[in-house]
Specification:
alpha/beta, UDP-n-acetylglucosamine1-carboxyvinyl-transferase, Chain, 2 domains, 4-stranded mixed β-sheet, 29% helix, globular
């Protein structure tokens, strides 16, 4: 699918998409809770659908309720076949692999697209310490696993991603770990671990003691499940909402419903960047409002995105329309995404007339008041597609986004919502 975005002024109110970070964790928690669950406001992205397929493959019964909620019945990890496919979800593979390893059955874990090139040697290193037989394709997918997973005192590196730790925390809980610790060095994206622990708590799972994010200790006490039936509501997604907030900031105004300012989601930090750039903000009654309705004169900003690397694309779109230069720290977190996002942002935004300098762990973005009409490519990366679409609102003519259907990975309704706000959106090759 190709999409053309015309220069536009936007205004209006739209709901935030469901958080896939919250949704995928809820699916995993529902599986290992070994009880009955209802997940309200479930996500519909490709990654969300992959998580549902995975838990079904691991034995959960999932049905759609008339109100759109999901009803899940689980008796724990009981695979129904010899393989699962995590689609293109980085969180999915890193979170579900330890849960797959809870079973003594020989299992193969597969993936698709960019996931096939992402490093998985973490499992080659860690799983043998936990009684799990593992083999990989030279540190890449597919993975072959045979458990059962046996919790033990281990130390792991948290610098590449916190997603590995999320999977370990859930697997230790499911295996009723006793008097053992997971020690972590150089942990990144701490807010995502906060989200993991919150979801585990909401599902009545055994929770470790968090010792300053350097160790997570599972006590020797017997865990008594506090809930026989769980009801969980998926949060609005700050990652997807960030693009709409930036759109309102640079091209008029908008209000996004369903974003919780008290959320543990790391990407709520977009509010800090918007504030520093001089964007008018309003927060009340579950609504976030940005912009004044008129093209604003925004100023360059400094922002540390080390713990929220998914904000780089909307931040670049914002910085492109600010006066002077903006500087964003955390470039090292971008290498193993759907694309090498630092280079992709540099190359695709260059087509829009935006200069981006990469200097070690810092990205410098030189703002311009006149972005160029051009053709860009998503690189099959959902966040690149959305970032270029938002920036296109301030271009001097239409911007064609090739392979724009990459948005389906996280936010299938993105272009619909952008159009509801008044943006000129023309979809080629496919109706929606």
């Amino acid at each position: 699918m190709h999409v053309t975005i015309s220069p536009s002024s936007i205004r209006g109110i739209v709901p935030a998409p469901a958080s896939k970070s919250s949704m995928q964790r809820a699916c995993a928690a529902a599986l290992i809770s070994a009880t009955e669950s209802v997940i309200r406001n479930p996500g519909i992205s490709n990654d969300d659908n992959a998580a549902i397929r995975v838990i079904r493959g691991l034995g959960a019964v999932v049905e759609n309720l008339p109100d759109g909620s999901l009803h899940i019945i689980s008796r724990g990890v009981r695979p129904v076949n010899d393989f699962i496919n995590c689609g293109e979800s980085g969180l999915g593979i890193r979170m579900f692999a330890p849960l797959v390893a809870l079973s003594a059955r020989q299992m193969t874990i597969e993936g698709e697209g960019s996931l096939l090139s992402r490093p998985m040697d973490f499992f080659d290193e860690i799983f043998p310490l936990l009684g799990v037989e593992v083999s990989s394709n030279l540190g890449k997918l597919p993975l072959q696993l045979k458990g059962p997973f046996q919790p033990a005192d281990i130390q792991t590196d948290g610098s590449l991603s916190s997603q590995f730790l999320t999977g370990l925390l859930m697997a230790y809980s499911a295996a009723d770990a006793k008097d053992v610790s997971i020690r972590v060095t150089n942990l990144k994206s701490r807010p995502y671990i906060d989200l993991t622990l919150k979801v585990m708590r909401d599902f009545g799972l055994k929770i470790p003691a968090n010792r300053a994010y350097e160790s997570f200790y599972f006590s020797g006490e017997e865990h008594i499940r506090s809930k026989d039936k769980i009801e969980y509501t998926v949060e609005g997604d700050w990652s997807g909402g960030a693009f709409l907030l930036v759109a309102g900031a640079i091209a008029g105004s908008c209000t996004i419903r369903g974003l919780d300012p008290d959320s543990t989601q790391a990407d709520k930090a977009i509010l800090l960047a918007l504030k520093e750039a001089g964007v008018p903000l309003g927060i009340s009654n579950g609504e976030i409002s940005v912009g004044s309705g008129q093209p604003a004169v925004l100023k360059g900003f400094h922002f540390d995105a080390t713990d929220c690397p998914d904000l780089f694309p909307p931040l670049v779109a914002l910085a492109s329309c600010c006066s002077g230069s903006s500087f964003i720290k955390g470039v090292s977190r971008l290498a193993h995404k759907e694309s090498d996002r630092a280079l992709t942002l540099q190359e695709e935004f260059a087509k829009l007339g935006v200069d981006i300098l990469l200097n070690g762990d810092t990205m410098g973005v030189k703002g311009t008041q006149q972005l160029k009409a051009c053709t860009v490519h998503s690189r099959h990366d959902h966040r690149i597609a959305m970032a270029t679409a938002v920036a296109a609102l301030r271009a001097n003519g239409p911007v064609l986004i090739e392979k724009a259907d990459a948005i389906n990975k996280s936010y299938p309704d993105f272009f619909k919502d952008l159009e509801k706000l008044g943006a000129g959106v023309h979809v080629l090759d496919r109706t929606y």
